[in-house]
Amino acid sequence: MKKIFFLVIAILCSFRSFSQSPSVVSFERQIAISTVLDLTKSSNGTLYTFSTVANFDNGIVRDFDIIVKSNKPWNLTVTASSAQFTSGSPTLMPVSVINIKRSTESNYSTAPYVISGSRGKYTYTFNMRANPGYNYEPGTYGNVDINFVLEPQSP
Amino acid sequence: MISNYTISIGKIAAKFNLHTLRDECERKYFYNFKVHINRYMKKGVLVALLILLGGFFVANAQPAEPAECKSNFTPTGNWLIDLFEKWNSDSRNRMEISGGTSSFIIDSKTMLENPSSDANNMTARILSRDSKYKLYVAGKIDFLDGTPTTNIPLSAFSVTATRTTGTTQNPSITPITLSGTFQPIVTTAVPSSATAETFQFTLNRAKLDTYLQSPGNYRLTIYLCYCWY
User: Fold this and answer.
1) Is the pLDDT assigned to residue B222 strictly greater than 80?
2) Would you tell me which residues 69-128 of chain A have a C-beta closer than 8 angstroms to some C-beta of chain B?
3) Confidence of residue B229 (pLDDT cuts 50, 70, 90)
4) Nearest residue of B to residue A79 by CA position?
């Protein structure tokens, strides 16, 4: 038994020697990649001016691009900084008059609006529509931020 | 509102390995087994040891050497000189390597989307008075953090060589994009003179702007093969 054992070891060592002769050496380098998420958005203007009947009938739609770069699975959340636009008018305008969707989607959504993706690089075209209809006094309504937040998904 | 989210992971020191494989195999495994064989000589233990030994061979797999390398060269002493072994002035055929400790730290979008290089004194010193020779390089990438991911492609790395000392006439030096098989990076048409040749290697990393590799630590192993042909 002992002889067999040593014979097997010797044969294996021989294989090692023949198949990997000592003329090969190696350098090693460590490569450390950190979590990287990046979000860029093209401009689509901040002022929606309603001056024609068609504007009131159909709303105003603006397009913009979002580029997401992430090496972790991610969530992009679109939220509004407050529930209502403020103005000098006694009638408050809810932020729900602002709708959003990706150009590939058929239906608009209201904030919060969330999309998710896996790691990679993505470009999306978004449509943002303001559609208050005839329900509000003439005037300027504002002081609402639309926030776009890119975060890694929870493990 | 645009959110730019970045987490930095600390630097991990690179390792430097130099193996004389035959010696290692004989010393570490054969000798140790011989000492302890009486204690563990049971059939089941023997089978387990053989499985572990087989696993060692598989885990340490490296690219096959090029076919054109002569298998019958008989150098004086080991081809590879241990870091602590003195360079022997009367040797005729030798190779030793040395390297620094830097790592590629990729912690921003800018670094992912731009190439970088690492000279870091990766050098090979060669004396080959009995034959013309070639140096081959190959690579391997491992993900060290256990989570399945899209690996960094080996083709993202290339190696260039520069001769810094030596007088051998016109060695041919070719930049190499790393792959899993050995490719010739230095070719000499004649044996070296009595003066050793020293080559410095620069490692270049292409941009990694697909964002498909998950965060974590990867290990790039660069194999260097010294070959008589």
Assistant:
1) yes
2) 69-72, 119-121
3) confident
4) B1
The shortest CB-CB distance from A70 to any of B41, B107, B211 is to: B211
C-alpha distances out from residue A125 to A47, A104, A121, A129, A155, Å:
19, 8, 14, 13, 28
Q: What is the mean pLDDT of chain B?
A: 71
Rg (CA), chain A: 30
Distance CA B108, CA B209 (A): 11
Task: Tell me the ipTM for this assembly.
Answer: 0.75
List, as one string, the DSSP characters of B64-81. PPPTTS-S----SS-SBP
Specify the amino acid at residue B60. N
- Amino acid B21: pLDDT: 31
What is the per-residue pLDDT for B227? 85
Write the residue in B18, B57, B103 that is nearest to A16 by C-beta.
B57
Report residues of chain A scoring pLDDT below 50. 9-22
Per CB-CB distance under 8 Å, the chain A contacts of B118 are 29
Q: What is the pLDDT of residue B91?
A: 66
Q: Does A26 touch chain B (CB under 8 A)?
A: yes
Model pLDDT, residue B119: 67
More confident residue, B205 or B33: B205
The answer, for B29 touching chain A at a CB cutoff of 8 Å, is yes
Sign of torsion over alpha carbons B54, B136, B219, A26: positive
Q: What is the pTM of this model?
A: 0.71
Q: Could you tell me the two tokens for B13?
A: 């020191």
